[in-house]
Design goal:
alpha+beta, four-stranded antiparallel beta sheet, disordered N terminus
């Protein structure tokens, strides 16, 4: 078995960028002003042991911080994110009762505090607007959450407000009985109008940050995505996806696997021209579309589940976000006027 280096076992706790007007200051003094409850001795020991780096390089305790320096504090244990700091951030709530609420998350908002995103998340906002939200076992620091969507994916999330709702919703997700529909713009036109992708997904063996498809089903976990083409636009297609399972980056990885990466999905190769010519006018058009929707073109459009108190099936729907609507209209105009 390959032995991992110490650096791979470290977790980033703090990343601090020195201001352009920063005075030249010893690193330990600089950090003491910014990290609460840390002594100079601990800081000096951390620097000596390689837990504190400047501009990705190990330095000596007498290093002096300069403007623009990037200081990273990384330690062997993960940061404790169980103490959520309430933040006054607006939430778009489309439904609420005593048991749950359904929110329409804006693109760019992280769902819960995690690596490099310890504030500004949906959970920080929930902690401000709602008190005593329940937490699933072994899931401290994520009150109310029973599922999540990616930072740059927009759309619907259900939040539990009671223990009863938490238990009921968690079981429905576990049983794959929750109905989730996503709309996405993808490169190219799938051959069939409808299809099912039944291919295992798991962490890539080459890049742990990426989800990979394993068509032989010899790695990963079972993942099933049903898709339907809503609109064909010659170079791109608007598709509807229903998830039978809920793996990390499931739609993004599955659509890449069948040759149709999501439009402007940087992680899965959709941020390049994958269909059409590369002549300058078309290239400029695509680049303008990327500017309109500077993220993967994916929206969690609808959500359906059995209400934990009434036991009735409820369903919630949302409009496509403005950036996705605009880029679809731009492609429609383009293909209608190209001939």
């Amino acid at each position: 078995m390959q032995e991992e280096s110490l650096e791979e076992d470290l977790y980033e706790h703090h990343r601090i960028v020195a201001d352009p007007g920063q005075e030249i200051l010893r690193l330990d003094k600089f950090l003491m002003d910014r990290l609460p409850n840390v002594t100079r001795n601990k800081l000096q020991a951390g620097i000596k042991d390689g837990f504190i780096k400047v501009n990705d390089k190990e330095i000596k305790p007498n290093y002096k911080v300069h403007p623009g320096d990037v200081i990273v504090v990384a330690l062997p244990e993960p940061p404790k994110d169980t103490d959520i700091v309430p933040e006054d951030i607006d939430i778009n709530i489309i439904f609420e009762d005593d048991d749950l609420l359904v929110v329409n998350k804006e693109p760019g908002m992280v769902v819960h505090p995690a690596y490099q995103n310890w504030s500004g998340t949906l959970v920080n906002a929930l902690a401000y607007h709602f008190k005593n939200l329940p937490t699933m076992p072994n899931n401290d620091g994520r009150p109310g959450l029973v599922h999540r969507i990616d930072k740059d994916t927009s759309g619907l999330l259900v939040i539990a407000k009671s223990e009863k709702a938490m238990t009921s919703l968690a079981k429905q997700f576990f049983d794959h009985s929750i109905e989730r529909t996503y709309y996405s713009l993808v490169w190219g036109e799938p051959v069939e109008d409808k299809g099912t992708i039944d291919v295992n997904l798991g962490r890539s063996l080459k890049d742990r940050r990426v989800t990979a498809a394993f068509p032989e089903n010899d790695h990963g976990r079972k993942a099933i995505t049903h898709y339907e083409v809503i609109k064909r636009l010659r170079y791109v297609s608007l598709i509807k996806c229903n998830l039978e399972t809920g793996r990390t980056h499931q739609i993004r990885a599955h659509m890449k696997h069948i040759g149709h990466p999501l439009f402007n999905d940087v992680t899965y190769g959709g941020d390049k021209i994958l269909k059409g010519t590369t002549f300058s006018k078309y290239k400029q058009f695509v680049e303008n579309c990327f500017k309109i929707i500077p993220r993967q073109a994916l929206h969690a459009k609808s959500l359906g589940f059995v209400h934990p108190t009434t036991n009735k099936f409820v369903q919630f729907d949302s409009e496509l976000p403005q950036d996705l609507q605009e880029v679809i209209a731009k492609w429609e105009h383009y293909v209608n006027h190209i001939d």
